[in-house]
Amino acid sequence: MDYRNKLVLAPMVRVGTLPFRLLSADYGADITYGEEIIDHKLIKCERRVNDVLGSIDVVEKGTEAVVFRTCDEEKSRVVFQMGTSDAVRALTAAQIVCRDVAAVDINMGCPKSFSVSGGMGAALLTKPELIHDILTTLKRNLDIPVTCKIRLLKSSSDTIELARRIEKTGVSALAVHGRRVADRPRDPANWNEIADVVAALSIPVIANGDVFEYEDFQRIKDTTGASSVMVARGALWNASVFSPKGKLPREDVKKQYVRKCILWDNDIKSTKHTLKEMIACHASLGLPEGMAVIKSETHADIARHYGEEKLRDVQSFVSYWSKAYCPQVQVRNRVMGEATVITSTELRILFSVSTKSSCQYKVTTRRS
Protein backbone atom coordinates (compact mmCIF):
# COMPACT_ATOMS: atom_id res chain seq x y z
CA MET A 1 0.00 0.00 0.00
CA ASP A 2 1.21 3.48 -0.86
CA TYR A 3 0.81 5.92 2.03
CA ARG A 4 1.72 9.06 0.14
CA ASN A 5 -0.79 11.69 -1.00
CA LYS A 6 -3.77 9.84 0.45
CA LEU A 7 -7.01 10.96 2.09
CA VAL A 8 -7.57 8.66 5.04
CA LEU A 9 -10.61 7.77 7.11
CA ALA A 10 -9.58 7.56 10.76
CA PRO A 11 -10.47 4.63 13.01
CA MET A 12 -13.65 5.39 14.99
CA VAL A 13 -15.20 2.98 17.49
CA ARG A 14 -18.76 1.89 16.60
CA VAL A 15 -18.55 4.01 13.43
CA GLY A 16 -15.86 2.53 11.20
CA THR A 17 -17.79 -0.58 10.17
CA LEU A 18 -18.08 -1.74 6.56
CA PRO A 19 -20.97 0.56 5.49
CA PHE A 20 -19.26 3.73 6.70
CA ARG A 21 -15.93 2.70 5.20
CA LEU A 22 -17.56 2.06 1.83
CA LEU A 23 -19.48 5.32 2.05
CA SER A 24 -16.28 7.27 2.71
CA ALA A 25 -14.53 5.54 -0.17
CA ASP A 26 -17.42 6.41 -2.48
CA TYR A 27 -16.83 10.07 -1.67
CA GLY A 28 -13.08 9.91 -2.18
CA ALA A 29 -11.29 8.33 0.79
CA ASP A 30 -8.20 6.45 -0.44
CA ILE A 31 -7.55 4.48 2.76
CA THR A 32 -10.20 3.50 5.28
CA TYR A 33 -9.41 2.36 8.81
CA GLY A 34 -11.81 0.07 10.62
CA GLU A 35 -12.82 0.63 14.21
CA GLU A 36 -10.33 -0.53 16.81
CA ILE A 37 -10.85 -4.16 17.79
CA ILE A 38 -9.15 -5.59 20.87
CA ASP A 39 -6.89 -8.61 20.37
CA HIS A 40 -8.53 -10.48 23.28
CA LYS A 41 -11.81 -10.30 21.35
CA LEU A 42 -10.30 -11.27 18.03
CA ILE A 43 -8.56 -14.43 19.19
CA LYS A 44 -11.97 -15.78 20.21
CA CYS A 45 -13.12 -15.49 16.61
CA GLU A 46 -12.87 -17.41 13.37
CA ARG A 47 -12.90 -16.29 9.77
CA ARG A 48 -15.96 -17.20 7.74
CA VAL A 49 -17.05 -16.62 4.17
CA ASN A 50 -20.57 -15.22 4.11
CA ASP A 51 -21.99 -16.41 0.79
CA VAL A 52 -25.26 -14.58 1.33
CA LEU A 53 -23.80 -11.12 1.82
CA GLY A 54 -20.71 -11.66 -0.28
CA SER A 55 -18.55 -10.68 2.68
CA ILE A 56 -15.78 -12.04 4.87
CA ASP A 57 -16.92 -12.17 8.48
CA VAL A 58 -14.82 -12.54 11.59
CA VAL A 59 -17.26 -14.19 13.96
CA GLU A 60 -16.98 -14.77 17.70
CA LYS A 61 -17.28 -18.45 18.45
CA GLY A 62 -20.15 -19.24 20.76
CA THR A 63 -22.03 -15.96 20.44
CA GLU A 64 -21.92 -15.90 16.60
CA ALA A 65 -21.52 -12.12 16.81
CA VAL A 66 -19.83 -10.52 13.80
CA VAL A 67 -16.80 -8.70 15.18
CA PHE A 68 -15.42 -7.54 11.83
CA ARG A 69 -16.90 -7.59 8.34
CA THR A 70 -15.18 -6.75 5.08
CA CYS A 71 -15.52 -7.48 1.37
CA ASP A 72 -13.40 -7.76 -1.77
CA GLU A 73 -14.35 -4.25 -2.85
CA GLU A 74 -12.31 -2.67 -0.06
CA LYS A 75 -9.50 -5.21 0.25
CA SER A 76 -6.88 -2.91 -1.29
CA ARG A 77 -7.59 0.01 1.04
CA VAL A 78 -9.00 -1.22 4.38
CA VAL A 79 -6.73 -1.06 7.41
CA PHE A 80 -7.49 -3.27 10.39
CA GLN A 81 -6.76 -1.42 13.61
CA MET A 82 -6.03 -3.45 16.70
CA GLY A 83 -5.78 -2.71 20.38
CA THR A 84 -3.11 -4.80 22.05
CA SER A 85 -0.54 -4.90 24.82
CA ASP A 86 1.16 -8.17 23.92
CA ALA A 87 3.21 -9.09 20.86
CA VAL A 88 2.31 -12.78 20.66
CA ARG A 89 -1.39 -12.12 21.16
CA ALA A 90 -1.28 -9.33 18.57
CA LEU A 91 0.23 -11.68 16.01
CA THR A 92 -2.31 -14.42 16.74
CA ALA A 93 -5.11 -11.91 16.23
CA ALA A 94 -3.59 -10.35 13.11
CA GLN A 95 -3.20 -13.71 11.42
CA ILE A 96 -6.99 -14.15 11.49
CA VAL A 97 -7.59 -11.06 9.34
CA CYS A 98 -4.36 -10.49 7.44
CA ARG A 99 -5.39 -12.10 4.16
CA ASP A 100 -8.50 -9.92 3.88
CA VAL A 101 -7.12 -6.44 4.63
CA ALA A 102 -4.53 -4.13 3.13
CA ALA A 103 -2.65 -3.43 6.36
CA VAL A 104 -2.68 -3.84 10.13
CA ASP A 105 -2.40 -0.83 12.45
CA ILE A 106 -1.72 -0.77 16.17
CA ASN A 107 -3.62 1.78 18.24
CA MET A 108 -1.21 3.69 20.46
CA GLY A 109 -3.25 6.82 20.97
CA CYS A 110 -6.65 5.97 22.47
CA PRO A 111 -6.98 7.77 25.83
CA LYS A 112 -10.18 5.99 26.90
CA SER A 113 -10.00 4.23 30.25
CA PHE A 114 -11.06 0.83 28.86
CA SER A 115 -8.05 0.90 26.57
CA VAL A 116 -5.46 2.45 28.88
CA SER A 117 -6.43 0.27 31.85
CA GLY A 118 -5.62 -2.79 29.76
CA GLY A 119 -2.20 -1.44 28.86
CA MET A 120 -3.35 -0.65 25.33
CA GLY A 121 -3.82 2.55 23.34
CA ALA A 122 -2.14 5.59 24.86
CA ALA A 123 -0.69 3.44 27.65
CA LEU A 124 1.84 2.15 25.10
CA LEU A 125 3.28 5.64 24.56
CA THR A 126 5.35 5.25 27.73
CA LYS A 127 6.50 1.72 26.89
CA PRO A 128 8.88 1.97 23.91
CA GLU A 129 10.32 -1.51 24.48
CA LEU A 130 6.86 -3.08 24.28
CA ILE A 131 6.07 -1.00 21.20
CA HIS A 132 9.24 -2.33 19.58
CA ASP A 133 8.34 -5.91 20.50
CA ILE A 134 4.82 -5.68 19.11
CA LEU A 135 5.73 -3.96 15.85
CA THR A 136 8.80 -6.07 15.06
CA THR A 137 6.90 -9.28 15.77
CA LEU A 138 4.15 -8.27 13.36
CA LYS A 139 6.65 -7.09 10.73
CA ARG A 140 8.58 -10.37 10.81
CA ASN A 141 5.50 -12.55 10.45
CA LEU A 142 3.02 -10.69 8.25
CA ASP A 143 3.17 -10.13 4.51
CA ILE A 144 1.15 -6.91 4.63
CA PRO A 145 2.17 -3.44 5.85
CA VAL A 146 2.22 -2.74 9.58
CA THR A 147 1.65 0.77 10.92
CA CYS A 148 0.68 2.49 14.15
CA LYS A 149 -1.11 5.62 15.30
CA ILE A 150 0.19 7.75 18.18
CA ARG A 151 -0.57 10.99 19.99
CA LEU A 152 1.80 13.79 20.91
CA LEU A 153 3.86 13.26 24.05
CA LYS A 154 4.57 15.87 26.73
CA SER A 155 7.21 17.57 24.61
CA SER A 156 8.00 17.70 20.93
CA SER A 157 11.42 16.14 21.57
CA ASP A 158 9.81 13.19 23.37
CA THR A 159 7.44 12.65 20.46
CA ILE A 160 10.29 12.75 17.97
CA GLU A 161 12.35 10.28 20.00
CA LEU A 162 9.46 7.81 20.12
CA ALA A 163 8.67 8.30 16.43
CA ARG A 164 12.26 7.52 15.49
CA ARG A 165 12.19 4.33 17.56
CA ILE A 166 8.97 3.33 15.83
CA GLU A 167 10.49 4.02 12.42
CA LYS A 168 13.37 1.65 13.21
CA THR A 169 10.92 -1.25 13.63
CA GLY A 170 10.28 -1.13 9.89
CA VAL A 171 6.69 0.13 9.91
CA SER A 172 5.36 1.41 6.60
CA ALA A 173 3.89 4.64 7.98
CA LEU A 174 3.10 6.48 11.18
CA ALA A 175 -0.13 8.35 11.91
CA VAL A 176 0.17 11.23 14.37
CA HIS A 177 -2.83 12.76 16.14
CA GLY A 178 -1.93 16.35 16.95
CA ARG A 179 -3.22 16.23 20.53
CA ARG A 180 -1.86 14.94 23.80
CA VAL A 181 -3.51 12.27 25.89
CA ALA A 182 -5.05 14.82 28.27
CA ASP A 183 -6.40 17.00 25.46
CA ARG A 184 -10.08 16.96 24.56
CA PRO A 185 -11.56 17.23 21.07
CA ARG A 186 -12.35 20.91 21.70
CA ASP A 187 -8.64 21.63 22.21
CA PRO A 188 -6.97 22.68 18.95
CA ALA A 189 -4.72 20.16 17.26
CA ASN A 190 -1.04 21.13 17.24
CA TRP A 191 -0.08 20.92 13.59
CA ASN A 192 3.38 22.41 14.25
CA GLU A 193 4.40 19.49 16.45
CA ILE A 194 3.24 17.08 13.75
CA ALA A 195 5.57 19.00 11.42
CA ASP A 196 8.46 18.32 13.82
CA VAL A 197 7.80 14.58 13.54
CA VAL A 198 7.59 14.75 9.75
CA ALA A 199 10.94 16.53 9.58
CA ALA A 200 12.59 13.87 11.72
CA LEU A 201 11.40 10.79 9.78
CA SER A 202 11.87 9.33 6.32
CA ILE A 203 8.74 7.12 6.33
CA PRO A 204 5.33 8.59 5.43
CA VAL A 205 3.60 10.45 8.25
CA ILE A 206 -0.19 10.72 8.28
CA ALA A 207 -1.37 13.93 9.94
CA ASN A 208 -4.57 13.81 12.00
CA GLY A 209 -6.50 16.56 13.76
CA ASP A 210 -8.97 19.37 12.98
CA VAL A 211 -9.79 18.50 9.39
CA PHE A 212 -13.39 19.49 8.74
CA GLU A 213 -13.45 20.78 5.15
CA TYR A 214 -11.90 19.49 1.94
CA GLU A 215 -9.61 22.55 1.89
CA ASP A 216 -8.23 21.50 5.28
CA PHE A 217 -6.55 18.49 3.67
CA GLN A 218 -4.18 20.76 1.79
CA ARG A 219 -3.82 23.24 4.68
CA ILE A 220 -2.60 20.60 7.11
CA LYS A 221 -0.29 19.12 4.46
CA ASP A 222 1.21 22.53 3.76
CA THR A 223 1.69 23.24 7.47
CA THR A 224 3.08 19.86 8.51
CA GLY A 225 4.67 18.50 5.34
CA ALA A 226 2.85 15.22 6.04
CA SER A 227 2.57 12.63 3.29
CA SER A 228 -1.13 12.03 3.87
CA VAL A 229 -4.03 13.33 5.95
CA MET A 230 -6.45 11.49 8.25
CA VAL A 231 -9.89 12.75 9.25
CA ALA A 232 -12.26 11.51 11.97
CA ARG A 233 -15.01 13.89 13.17
CA GLY A 234 -15.07 15.78 9.90
CA ALA A 235 -15.93 12.54 8.11
CA LEU A 236 -18.36 11.38 10.78
CA TRP A 237 -20.35 14.60 10.53
CA ASN A 238 -20.38 14.52 6.72
CA ALA A 239 -18.53 11.73 4.89
CA SER A 240 -18.59 13.73 1.65
CA VAL A 241 -15.78 15.84 3.16
CA PHE A 242 -13.52 13.61 1.05
CA SER A 243 -15.06 14.89 -2.20
CA PRO A 244 -13.16 17.57 -4.13
CA LYS A 245 -16.54 18.70 -5.49
CA GLY A 246 -17.59 19.90 -2.05
CA LYS A 247 -19.84 18.54 0.64
CA LEU A 248 -23.24 17.13 -0.18
CA PRO A 249 -26.28 17.95 1.96
CA ARG A 250 -26.22 16.01 5.22
CA GLU A 251 -29.60 14.46 4.48
CA ASP A 252 -28.28 12.91 1.26
CA VAL A 253 -25.24 11.50 3.05
CA LYS A 254 -27.34 10.02 5.83
CA LYS A 255 -29.63 8.31 3.33
CA GLN A 256 -26.68 6.81 1.50
CA TYR A 257 -25.33 5.56 4.81
CA VAL A 258 -28.66 3.96 5.72
CA ARG A 259 -28.79 2.19 2.37
CA LYS A 260 -25.33 0.73 2.87
CA CYS A 261 -26.19 -0.39 6.38
CA ILE A 262 -29.18 -2.24 4.97
CA LEU A 263 -27.17 -3.69 2.09
CA TRP A 264 -24.49 -5.06 4.39
CA ASP A 265 -26.65 -6.06 7.36
CA ASN A 266 -24.80 -3.73 9.69
CA ASP A 267 -25.23 -4.12 13.42
CA ILE A 268 -28.26 -1.99 14.32
CA LYS A 269 -26.51 -0.55 17.39
CA SER A 270 -23.66 0.67 15.22
CA THR A 271 -26.06 2.15 12.67
CA LYS A 272 -28.01 4.01 15.35
CA HIS A 273 -24.86 5.27 17.08
CA THR A 274 -23.44 6.64 13.84
CA LEU A 275 -26.70 8.28 12.79
CA LYS A 276 -27.03 9.90 16.21
CA GLU A 277 -23.52 11.32 15.89
CA MET A 278 -24.34 12.63 12.42
CA ILE A 279 -27.48 14.30 13.73
CA ALA A 280 -26.02 15.67 16.97
CA CYS A 281 -23.37 17.72 15.17
CA HIS A 282 -26.04 20.09 13.84
CA ALA A 283 -29.32 19.40 15.68
CA SER A 284 -30.75 18.16 18.96
CA LEU A 285 -31.44 14.45 19.31
CA GLY A 286 -34.66 15.52 21.01
CA LEU A 287 -36.08 16.67 17.67
CA PRO A 288 -38.18 14.27 15.52
CA GLU A 289 -35.30 12.81 13.49
CA GLY A 290 -33.19 12.07 16.52
CA MET A 291 -36.09 10.57 18.43
CA ALA A 292 -37.02 8.37 15.46
CA VAL A 293 -33.49 6.96 15.33
CA ILE A 294 -33.36 6.43 19.09
CA LYS A 295 -36.68 4.55 19.05
CA SER A 296 -35.79 2.38 16.04
CA GLU A 297 -35.31 -1.30 16.81
CA THR A 298 -34.48 -2.62 13.33
CA HIS A 299 -33.15 -1.44 10.01
CA ALA A 300 -36.73 -1.64 8.77
CA ASP A 301 -37.59 1.13 11.25
CA ILE A 302 -34.60 3.16 10.12
CA ALA A 303 -35.47 2.63 6.44
CA ARG A 304 -39.03 3.77 7.03
CA HIS A 305 -37.91 7.02 8.65
CA TYR A 306 -35.45 7.87 5.87
CA GLY A 307 -37.92 7.16 3.08
CA GLU A 308 -36.53 3.77 2.06
CA GLU A 309 -39.79 1.87 2.50
CA LYS A 310 -39.41 0.40 -0.98
CA LEU A 311 -36.68 -1.84 0.38
CA ARG A 312 -39.30 -3.55 2.53
CA ASP A 313 -41.56 -4.50 -0.36
CA VAL A 314 -40.10 -7.83 -1.38
CA GLN A 315 -42.27 -8.57 -4.37
CA SER A 316 -41.88 -5.13 -5.90
CA PHE A 317 -38.16 -5.23 -5.27
CA VAL A 318 -37.61 -8.55 -6.99
CA SER A 319 -39.71 -7.40 -9.92
CA TYR A 320 -37.84 -4.12 -10.18
CA TRP A 321 -34.44 -5.82 -10.29
CA SER A 322 -35.45 -8.74 -12.48
CA LYS A 323 -33.58 -7.30 -15.45
CA ALA A 324 -30.29 -6.92 -13.60
CA TYR A 325 -27.34 -9.01 -14.70
CA CYS A 326 -24.99 -9.81 -11.84
CA PRO A 327 -23.55 -12.89 -10.16
CA GLN A 328 -26.73 -14.60 -8.95
CA VAL A 329 -27.74 -16.36 -5.78
CA GLN A 330 -30.81 -18.57 -5.46
CA VAL A 331 -32.88 -18.32 -2.31
CA ARG A 332 -36.31 -19.44 -1.23
CA ASN A 333 -38.64 -16.52 -0.79
CA ARG A 334 -41.24 -17.60 1.73
CA VAL A 335 -43.52 -14.72 0.83
CA MET A 336 -43.62 -15.60 -2.84
CA GLY A 337 -43.70 -19.32 -2.10
CA GLU A 338 -41.13 -20.27 -4.72
CA ALA A 339 -37.44 -20.20 -5.39
CA THR A 340 -36.45 -16.82 -6.76
CA VAL A 341 -33.18 -15.98 -8.48
CA ILE A 342 -31.93 -12.57 -7.40
CA THR A 343 -28.58 -10.85 -7.40
CA SER A 344 -26.30 -10.90 -4.40
CA THR A 345 -26.79 -7.16 -3.84
CA GLU A 346 -30.56 -7.54 -3.87
CA LEU A 347 -30.28 -10.40 -1.44
CA ARG A 348 -28.33 -8.27 1.00
CA ILE A 349 -31.12 -5.72 1.00
CA LEU A 350 -33.87 -8.31 1.26
CA PHE A 351 -32.19 -10.09 4.12
CA SER A 352 -31.57 -6.95 6.13
CA VAL A 353 -35.00 -5.38 5.91
CA SER A 354 -36.83 -8.65 6.48
CA THR A 355 -36.08 -8.65 10.23
CA LYS A 356 -39.31 -9.04 12.22
CA SER A 357 -41.32 -9.56 9.03
CA SER A 358 -42.80 -12.61 7.33
CA CYS A 359 -39.99 -12.66 4.76
CA GLN A 360 -36.94 -14.35 6.24
CA TYR A 361 -33.82 -15.87 4.77
CA LYS A 362 -31.48 -18.23 6.51
CA VAL A 363 -27.98 -16.81 6.36
CA THR A 364 -25.31 -19.45 6.07
CA THR A 365 -21.61 -18.93 6.38
CA ARG A 366 -18.75 -21.28 5.81
CA ARG A 367 -15.40 -21.49 7.50
CA SER A 368 -12.44 -20.80 5.28
List keywords for this structure.
tRNA_hU_synthase_CS, eight-stranded parallel beta barrel, DUS-like_FMN-bd, 368 residues, alpha/beta, 15 helices, oxidoreductase, flavoprotein, tRNA-DUS-like, 38% helix
Word description of this protein:
Keywords: Flavoprotein, FMN, Oxidoreductase, tRNA processing. GO terms for molecular function: flavin adenine dinucleotide binding; tRNA dihydrouridine synthase activity. Pfam families: Dus. By secondary structure, this protein is α/β, with parallel strands linked by helices. It is built from 15 helices and 15 strands. The chain has helices at about 20-25, 40, 85-95, 115, 130-140, 155-170, 190-200, 215-225, 235, 250-265, 270-280, 290-295, 300-305, 315-320, 345-355; strands spanning about 5-10, 30-35, 35-40, 45-50, 55-60, 65-70, 80-85, 105-110, 145-150, 175-180, 205-210, 230, 330-335, 340-345, 365.
